[in-house]
Design brief:
By secondary structure, this protein is mainly beta. It is built from 4 helices and 90 strands.
Length: 1224
């Protein structure tokens, strides 16, 4: 059993040495430079070669999608156990979890020392561990190494932090105890915890800021400085000794006097059965060991006088600390105040009924021993022992509550109903009750009612204590509980009702009430009830109950939610708060007011909360230099819970609808105040519920330069309609884009997706140290249901939303489940099917089947099909689309079941094939037989129209008739593909030839016969997906599920080989596809070096977590695409498809461009030469046919056959008339 620090009375704390914190073990924090940066590890490139495929798309059930680019990426759902993470943005815009907690992070600040070096990022909250390391409420984070350093010494919850570089100090506020301080303390430089001069506050601190005058302003629900007050009658709670394990040493052997139990619940008289004695002349001890921890303040001993015996001196040792306690007491002989340690005296005067010894130091213990060192007469002994404390507890285990023998009017009790069992304390401070509950879990499954012993009316802090889940190995089955109660006799007041988590790794407590509690009377008694929360998704729940504590708070301290502290002053004047304008402002608030949030801009500090004052309500401003109060239009007409400042804009969230003076309305729980113009404005039209947190973050909205945007989260389900923007359904989260003056959810922009909750952030203008806290599901591209895939991701020009009507089949998949690109006959149509709703271009709605044409016009079918239909298979044959799934309706008077036919050329329904019937009447796969007009349909059915045609049937578009492919075949088809013009392969659960079971079968269209696929008897279960593993489809990959495990195996033409890969729990493979890669990888027995196998669905990869698409290279399975789902669900990808099915072709098989050009030139030259030669040949052939004779090419008798001619003979006839025609 571990003894944890907890709330104690003021007197106890003031007298405790500071060593209570074990300061000798405090770390000396080392700074790590002027700047730190979180870095991420790039993931190996996928190297997919998509160049031969045209457009490639994925469809599924997701609200965002990311390429897996960094090792730190994860596909997570929103936390459902109340735990937050420390988050940072990766370069692709998605959030990565740096550190996981077991509860919430409520505050952060960057601690930079005076010398400019960074000590770390301080994180505060109500957690008990960070990154699995025990860290109660506060720790330091190193951005360089992601190391966590617990700042031990605080027990409770940290709600506010202020890192003050000027003072080398971190101011810490919340609901906690540490050293001699309550609810406020300081961490100074690298020295450690230091008490503030005023020792904290009597109530929780929720916000801290630094005013323009350098003073520190604390805000919260406190009314005075210092620690919790003592009851007016201290030592009033009785510690139950009767349930302890009692032992003794050297007890007397005399009958009736040897049992150490004799002196518990004794009346103090000397008698057998009422007195415990030691052996004669022998020292001895009396020891009690408990199942719970406590902190006693008073010991009462009744000395014995039996036979002249009695105890003269004793010492009290606290266990397991082995510390001898110091006491103060009144000497009965002199009446003087005295003290003692190791030899505390008891009187032998018979008129002294008992003696009280007050503990000097408040020390936690779960056992103690009284050693009797000296005695009167023949030996020592005691007649009675009682132990008291100031702490007011009601324990779940009734044996730990006040004993019935104490005769108290309203002793603390607990009443339990349900299957409760006692669990040993382990590392906890107390044993506790555990109830193991089975689904369905409701508030009636178990309950426990705590009734405390409240003797004095007043202002109390009430805390519920929860043991850690690691010690009993119940973290996976811990859940939520409701804690409710009535604290005052006036039933219109004093009510509490909260929902909390029990998923803490280590012990913790949560404040559940802070306010008035009436003392117990015969007509009223305060009660606190614990029950499991309704509607939890746990199949089994471990519900634990330990104790509830009540601490009286001094309500007359002169403060009211605000306190101004001058850090340069070593002392604080606790008797006069009127000199501070902030203190004076708070004093003017109505009783019961609370300050929830503080922000400082320049000289002005803005104060938000739940308060009324003469100047304003719920929000007011104070100039730190001039002390001028600014009313801000009279404040807001409801509580302010959160504020954040960005430049001159103060963003405010809470529960309000307008300004108090009524000049600005329509604010609806979130608003912005322009500090430069002093004007209020709405964020759209607000949200329809309470806003708990307003947090800044950065996003790349319209450019590559990040801009600051504002997230709001709380208890709302809708962003209200405004202007031309319709109302948008959300899950408690919205993002306001100031540059667009609109909500992110209204903008159809290619930006990242965000969903969840942010509690706080640190925005670094450089981006290096920007950190967030909360639970966020994010993706680099916000898009629902369908996305285009290349080296980057892109959106389709369609806005897809979750389906308005629930799917008709149990276990049906939501979202987009299938798609096809139709490029036939000059068309360019993208067809998406599934179970969803989309916005048509004409302003209407599209249900479940969507068409996007080349002009980006979005259309759908009419209302002929019921809205809860789901499409899972699409195929185009000519101009006809065949769409199958769980589809019902009436088209042109014809009943439709399982399959619908639509003419893509005319945009009208075809004459419908007769309806499918029998079994589930659903279609799972459609495959058009190559080179034919036959459309093969597989699924869960028995007939097509009047034709008996189980599992697989084909529809001839030529004859408009159904036909049965073969006989002696039955079962359920999951997947189909043609491996040739005549061979069809189908996966599912079948019987062939009336008796042979098979999970994979083939159909020979020529012979019209079915047979079990070769070697299919080796498959362990039904095949759910299959794909070709080679270009000729002689090899196959198949997957399925057997005995709850996923199998993946390949057929290489002769044998089956299992893939050497393990899948984690929850894996669902919904698609398989081979892709070409460039460059390649090492070949394996199952995957060629230039190929990878892609798996889509929800793939749990050991060591990496879930991915929606994963790639397998024959040896390693790693993520390719990760998606975000909605709410607590994870995303998944159902199908991947492309314009071209050239999955086995690669651009790497082509010659380099330079060689292509050279070869082209060579071919051109050869052709030109051929043309010239052909021309010459044809010319000679023509001349020969026309009688041309070649001229002589040589001279005969060149010397004698040619005589010289005189010039006059050659030219003499010129100018003479021509002679007549020759005569024959």
């Amino acid at each position: 059993m571990r003894l944890s620090a907890r709330r104690r009375g003021a007197r106890s704390r003031q007298s405790s040495p500071f060593s209570f914190l074990k300061l000798s073990s405090l770390l000396t924090l080392t700074s790590f430079g002027t700047a730190g940066a979180v870095t991420f590890t790039p993931a190996p490139a996928a190297d997919l070669d998509l160049s031969q495929l045209g457009r490639v798309a994925v469809v599924g059930d997701f609200s965002g999608i990311s390429l897996f680019e960094f090792a730190e990426q994860a596909q997570n759902s929103l936390s459902t156990n109340g735990s937050d993470s420390l988050l940072a943005r990766m370069p692709n815009g998605a959030f990565a979890s740096l550190v996981q907690t077991d509860a919430s992070i409520q505050a952060m600040c960057t601690f930079t020392l005076k010398n400019g070096s960074m000590a770390g990022v301080v994180i505060g909250g109500n957690f008990t561990s960070l990154a699995g390391k025990e860290s109660t409420a506060i720790a330091m984070f190193n951005p360089n190494t992601s190391a966590i350093t617990p700042l031990s010494g605080i027990s409770g919850q940290v709600s506010a932090l202020l890192c003050d570089q000027e003072q080398d100090t971190v101011y810490v506020g919340g609901n906690f105890v540490g050293a001699n301080s309550t609810n406020a303390i300081a961490w100074v430089g690298t020295q450690g915890w230091t008490n503030l001069p005023f020792a904290g506050f009597n109530g929780p601190v929720t916000s801290i800021t630094k005013a323009s005058n350098g003073h520190i302003i604390f805000g919260g629900s406190f009314t005075g400085l210092g620690n919790a007050s003592l009851p007016s009658t201290p030592d009033g709670q009785v510690i139950n000794l009767s349930s302890a394990n009692l032992t003794s040493g050297n007890s007397a052997t005399t009958a009736g006097f040897s049992d150490p139990k004799n002196i518990v619940c004794s009346d103090g008289s000397d008698a057998a059965g009422k007195t415990w004695l030691l052996q004669d002349n022998t020292p001895g001890f009396w020891q009690a060991t408990f199942g719970f921890g406590f902190q006693p303040t008073k010991l009462r001993l009744h000395n014995t006088h039996q036979d002249g015996r009695g105890t003269k001196t004793f010492r009290f040792t606290a266990l397991p600390l082995n510390g001898i306690m110091n006491f103060t007491y009144i000497d009965p002989a002199t009446g003087a105040n005295s003290s003692c340690t190791s030899e505390c005296p008891l009187s032998s005067d018979t008129s002294v009924k008992f003696q009280d010894f007050h503990f000097v130091n408040a020390v936690g213990m779960n056992a103690f021993r009284i050693d009797i060192s000296a005695f009167y007469g023949s030996g020592g002994g005691l007649n009675g022992i009682e132990l008291f404390e100031n702490d007011i507890f009601a324990h779940a285990i009734n044996d730990f509550n006040e004993p019935t023998c104490a005769g108290l009017a309203a002793a603390s009790t607990a009443t339990a109903t349900g299957p409760w069992k006692v669990t040993t304390s382990g590392a906890s401070s107390s044993e506790y009750l555990t109830a193991e509950l089975s689904s369905p879990i409701s508030s009636s499954s178990a309950s426990i009612v705590f009734s405390p012993d409240i003797r004095e009316s007043g202002h109390y802090s009430v805390n519920v204590f929860t043991p850690g889940c690691l010690q009993d190995n119940s973290c996976d089955t811990r859940g939520q509980f409701i804690i409710s109660g009535q604290m005052t006799a006036d039933l219109t007041k004093g009510q509490l009702n909260q929902t909390l988590f029990q998923t803490n790794n280590f012990d913790k407590y949560d404040q559940i009430y802070f306010g008035q509690i009436d003392a117990s009377t015969t007509g009223f008694r305060p009660k606190v009830t614990m029950t499991p929360a309704n509607g939890q998704s746990l199949t089994s729940m471990t519900f634990v109950a330990q104790r509830v504590g009540f601490t009286l708070i001094n309500s007359t301290g002169g403060l009211n939610g605000l306190f101004e502290y001058d850090p340069t002053s070593a002392t604080v004047n606790v008797s006069d708060f009127t000199s501070s304008a902030f203190d004076k402002l708070g004093a003017g608030f109505a009783t019961g007011s609370a300050v929830n949030t503080l922000q400082t801009a320049g000289d002005v500090t803005y104060i938000g909360g739940n308060f009324t004052s003469p100047q304003a309500r719920n929000i007011v401003a104070m100039n730190g230099n001039s002390a001028e109060v600014q009313a801000l239009d009279g404040g807001l007409n409801g509580e302010v819970l959160s504020m954040v400042l960005n430049g001159t804009n103060l963003f405010v969230g809470g529960r309000f609808s307008g300004t108090q003076d009524g000049k600005v309305s329509g604010l609806s729980n979130v608003a912005v105040y322009d500090t430069s113009k002093n004007t209020w404005s709405a964020l759209g039209a607000g949200v329809n519920g309470r806003v708990r947190n307003v947090v800044l973050l950065t996003m790349n909205v319209t450019s590559t330069t990040p801009e600051v945007v504002v997230s709001v989260n709380g208890d709302f389900t809708q962003l209200e309609a405004f202007g031309t923007n319709a109302a948008v359904s959300v899950q408690n989260f919205g993002v306001w884009i100031p540059s667009q003056n609109n909500w992110l959810q209204n903008l159809n922009l290619a930006v990242e997706s965000l969903e969840g909750m942010l509690s706080t952030s640190i925005i670094d203008p450089t981006g290096a140290n920007t950190l967030y806290a909360g639970s966020i599901v994010s993706s680099s591209l916000g898009v629902r249901g369908a996305a285009l895939v290349s080296t980057a991701l892109a959106r389709f020009p369609a806005r897809i939303e979750p389906a308005a009507a629930a799917a008709s089949a149990s276990g049906a998949v939501d979202g987009v489940t299938t798609g096809v690109f139709d490029l036939n006959n000059g068309r360019n149509i993208t067809i998406l099917g599934g179970h969803f709703t989309a916005n048509a271009t004409n302003g209407g709605s599209v249900n479940n089947l969507l068409f996007i044409d080349g002009a980006n016009t979005v259309t759908g079918l009419g209302t002929e099909l019921v809205a809860n239909s789901t499409f899972v298979a699409l195929a185009v044959q000519g101009d006809s689309l065949f769409a199958g799934g769980n589809v019902t309706g009436t088209v042109n008077g014809a009943k439709v079941t399982g399959l619908v036919s639509y003419n893509l050329a005319t945009g009208q329904y075809n004459a419908q094939p007769p309806a499918l019937s029998g079994a589930a009447g659903t279609v799972s796969a459609i495959a058009v037989r190559p080179s034919t007009q036959d459309v093969y349909v597989g699924g869960s059915f028995q007939s097509a129209g009047s034709l008996g045609c189980p599992a697989v049937c084909f529809f001839s578009t030529a004859t408009r008739q159904w036909n049965q492919p073969g006989v002696n075949f039955d079962g359920t088809t999951n997947a189909m593909m043609w491996t040739s013009d005549t061979q069809l392969v189908a996966g599912g659960a079948f019987t062939v030839n009336n008796s042979v079971p098979a999970f994979l079968v083939t159909y020979d269209a020529t012979k019209q016969t079915w047979d079990r696929f070769p070697g299919a008897a080796q498959l362990p279960g039904p095949v759910t997906q299959l794909t070709a593993a080679s270009s000729d489809a002689t090899q196959l990959w198949v997957t399925g599920t057997a005995n709850g495990s996923v199998f993946l195996t390949k057929y290489d033409g002769t044998k089956w080989t299992d893939a050497p890969v393990q899948f984690g729990a929850g894996t669902a493979v919904r698609g398989l596809q081979i892709f070409t890669v460039s460059p390649g990888h090492d070949s394996s027995d199952t995957v060629a070096g230039n190929e990878i196998l892609m798996l889509t669905g929800a793939i749990n990869i050991p060591g990496s977590g879930f991915a929606s698409a994963a790639i397998f290279n024959g040896t390693t399975l790693r993520p390719y695409l990760v998606t975000a789902g909605s709410g607590a669900s994870t995303g998944s990808i159902a199908h991947i498809f492309s314009e071209n099915n050239s999955f086995f072709s690669s651009s790497t098989n082509q010659l380099p461009l330079v060689f292509v050009i050279l070869i082209g030139l060579g071919i051109s030259l050869a052709l030109m030469l051929l043309i010239v030669v052909a021309g010459l040949f044809l010319d000679r052939l023509r001349k020969k046919r026309e009688g041309y004779i070649p001229a002589p090419t040589s001279m005969y008798d060149r010397g004698s056959g040619i005589q010289r001619i005189r010039p006059e003979d050659l030219l003499g006839g010129l100018g003479k008339p021509r002679p007549g025609a020759p005569q024959v």
